[in-house]
Amino acid sequence: MSQFEIKVPATTANLGVGFDSIGLALNKFLTVKASPADNWQFNFKDAFLKVLPNNEQNLVAKVANKVASKFKQTMPPLRVEMSSEIPLTHGLGSSSSAIVAGIELANHFVQLNLTQEQKILIATEIEGHPDNVGPCVTGGLFIGAYENGVLFYETADFNHVGIILSIPDYELSTAEVRKVLPAEYSKEAIILQNAYSNIMTAAMLKGDFEKMGAMMMKDLIHEPYRQPLIKEFDAVKNIALTTGAFATVISGAGPTILTLCPVERKEAILQSLNSMVPECRHEITTVYP
């Protein structure tokens, strides 16, 4: 069987009030080129990937083997060349992209003919929630819910908004940042969160980006507890909003900071952030596709 290549997009999840349920696919990619081999081998084209296992213990291989076994098939070992534009453990879906890449390898080399929904469901079963893995598969805006093996989701285009990522040089693991969340929330907080999320989603779909941004920054579930872990957050948010952004929130589990803004303001905001918060790498990206 000849070489197979797959590109899986980065994602930004939560979008403030959409905790564990809303995500966007971004034009940054994990690229995997694979061909049959005698045993699993990973050749990393980017230096930062070399901390990952280069054998069957790599997440991509583990997922591919798991998916093949799920369908009572045997996954052939592969020689894999991997490159990535997605930093590890920075809230941009690096693990989700690896999970989806593993599913795609199993789908191709064992000829499973999985549907889009099957791919998302399998990825969600592995990840635990759909907001990162979903947009890796569908692209665009993804809204999903998962409970007890049942998945519901919708997708939509989301364009005409500038996107800026502010990426600190340190990592935050998802497990680490989940520890700071409360065990319980008040009834009043849940009601408000639900209302804010509903209004934000409707505003996104209508193109009312001012209202979208206002609702996005009203999160009560995770942002108030996680923002203190990202020392650059307040500075990035203040500068971005002062320069015309719609919203600044945490991307996924962080520490990457997501700013949404008018397309015509993105260069000015980027320039201000580069000048005033040099501790982060700031870059403009777009929604994929």
From TrEMBL:
The processes (GO biological process) annotated in the record are:
threonine biosynthetic process
The UniProt annotation places ATP binding at P87, L88, T89, H90, G91, L92, G93, S94, S95, S96, S97
- Quote one Gene Ontology molecular function term: homoserine kinase activity
Q: List, for all copies, the residue spans of the domain called GHMP kinase C-terminal.
A: 201-276
Identify one Gene Ontology CC term for this UniProt entry. Answer: cytoplasm
Q: Which InterPro entries match?
A: GHMP_kinase_C_dom (IPR013750), GHMP_kinase_C_sf (IPR036554), GHMP_kinase_N_dom (IPR006204), GHMP_knse_ATP-bd_CS (IPR006203), Homoserine_kinase (IPR000870), Ribosomal_Su5_D2-typ_SF (IPR020568), Ribsml_uS5_D2-typ_fold_subgr (IPR014721)
Task: List, for all copies, the residue spans of the domain called GHMP kinase N-terminal.
Answer: 58-140
Q: In which pathway does it act?
A: Amino-acid biosynthesis; L-threonine biosynthesis; L-threonine from L-aspartate: step 4/5
EC number(s): the record gives 2.7.1.39
Reactions this protein catalyses: L-homoserine + ATP = O-phospho-L-homoserine + ADP + H(+)
Q: Where in the cell is it found?
A: Cytoplasm
Please name one Pfam family that this protein belongs to. Answer: GHMP_kinases_N
Alphabetically list the UniProt keywords: Amino-acid biosynthesis, ATP-binding, Cytoplasm, Kinase, Nucleotide-binding, Threonine biosynthesis, Transferase
Identify the Gene3D superfamilies for this entry: 3.30.230.10, GHMP kinase, C-terminal domain
Q: Which protein family is named in the record?
A: Belongs to the GHMP kinase family. Homoserine kinase subfamily.
Say what the protein does: Catalyzes the ATP-dependent phosphorylation of L-homoserine to L-homoserine phosphate.
PANTHER family attached here? HOMOSERINE KINASE, HOMOSERINE/4-DIPHOSPHOCYTIDYL-2-C-METHYL-D-ERYTHRITOL KINASE
Question: What NCBIfam families does UniProt report for this protein, alphabetically?
Answer: thrB
HAMAP family with a match to the protein in the record: Homoser_kinase
Protein name as it appears in the record: Homoserine kinase
Highest classification ranks of the organism? Bacteria, Bacillati, Bacillota, Bacilli, Lactobacillales
